[in-house]
Amino acid sequence: MLLRRLFIPLCALLVTSGALAAPPAVADWSDPACEIDGSPLAGSDGCVPGADATDPASGPNSCAGASICEQTYAQLRGTVFDDSDVRTEDDRALSELPVVPARRLRGGGISYGGWVSFHLYRDKHCAGTIKDNNFCGWLFHKYRAIDSSGPRPGIQVTAFPARSGNNRPASKWVRNLGPVPNRFTASAGGRARTSFRWGRMNGSYTGFERDGTGSFYPGKWRLDPWVIHQPSKPSHTRSSFEIHGGRNGDGSSRFWTTRTAGCIRLTIKGIRGLRAKWSHRTDNRRRAEVYVVHHA
Q1: Are the CB atoms for 165 and 260 separated by under 8 Å?
Q2: Cα 85 from chain centre
Q3: Which tens digits make up the pLDDT trace of 193-217?
Q4: 105, exposed or middle or buried, with CB in 10 Å at 0-12, 13-18, 19+?
Q5: Number of other CB atoms surrounding residue 62 within 10 Å
Q6: Do the beta carbons of residue 112 and residue 283 sit within 8 Å?
Q7: Is the pLDDT of residue 166 over 90?
Q8: Which residues contact 268 (CB under 8 A, 6 or more apart)?
Q9: How far is CA 242 from the centre of its chain?
Q10: Which listed residue, of 3, 44, 63, 290, carries a Cα 20 to 30 Å from 236's Cα?
Q11: Cβ within 8 Å of residue 265, ≥6 positions away
């Protein structure tokens, strides 16, 4: 009898403890629980969009929030943005640009193949962006014009001030602190990667998402793979990386005041300018890449 009296409260305690330890439920893929860095929920079925999203209407092309607007490498040469520093991923990006069918060419018979690269520089290129732990971040949008005969010569570069986590590459595998990693695997034991798909989540296209919350305003793009593994320690993951904005209570941009938990943050104007590039200079956006480069 005494054992029974002890057993019932013990079972109740174990059930209660299990409930407290259980991860929060996920309502659907847009649930904030899916956006917790390193959470086991991030790769769950509940965090998989049911279908590809439809792109919202966009405004005109612009370079809002950018420090450099659609310049060629010849124009960049001799400036503080040494063109050799922003060419790291170009050959791979150009080789991965999809062939655009003639029926999808814009007026004038031209389409645009675009991609994005996030660079962290140590103690240089710091004018106009945030310096944190001696590293300064920039997000480059690049594109090549494509006509019915194939890609045209020349790459156009637009540069946005950017930051990610604490900007310190050595912290890249520290959850909720370090920047987006520059080398990772998409699944345990998979090949090493340095790029994400832009505007996707767990295999589905999510596109640009308007978001009025303080952490993300005016919106965000998710990056896929949504869950990544440390190559040297496959059991260790980070997840839920995005490109987003953010604003303070007085309406100013959080870019200048607040670190992220690892996502790439632009200014409010920068998000609007990048969205214009997404809509008007990235016709391959359902397959567009984001490359990550850390400079020593």
Answers
A1: yes
A2: 20
A3: 999 999 999 999 999 999 999 999 9
A4: middle
A5: 17
A6: yes
A7: yes
A8: 65, 217, 218, 245, 246, 247, 253, 255
A9: 4
A10: 290
A11: 162, 163, 164, 243, 244, 245, 246, 254, 255, 258
In this prediction, residue 6 carries a pLDDT of: 39
List all residues 6 or more positions away from 42 whose beta carbon is below 8 Å from its beta carbon: 34, 35, 36, 226, 227, 237, 239, 240
pLDDT at 100: 65
Residues belonging to the chain: 296
- Cβ-contact 160, 68 below 8 angstroms: no
State mean pLDDT over 273-292. Answer: 95
- Encoded amino acid at 241, one letter: F
* Contacts with 140 (C-beta within 8 Å, 6 or more apart), sequence order: 86, 116, 117, 118, 119, 157, 158, 159, 160
HSE of 49 in the Cβ direction (CA atoms, 13 Å)?
Answer: 17
Residue 86 dihedral angles phi and psi, to the nearest 5°: -110, 10
Q: How far, CA to CA in Å, does 264 sit from each of 52, 162, 229, 243, 267?
A: 23, 7, 18, 5, 10
Q: For 91, phi and psi rounded to 5 degrees?
A: -60, -45
Pairing of strands 135-147, 111-122: antiparallel
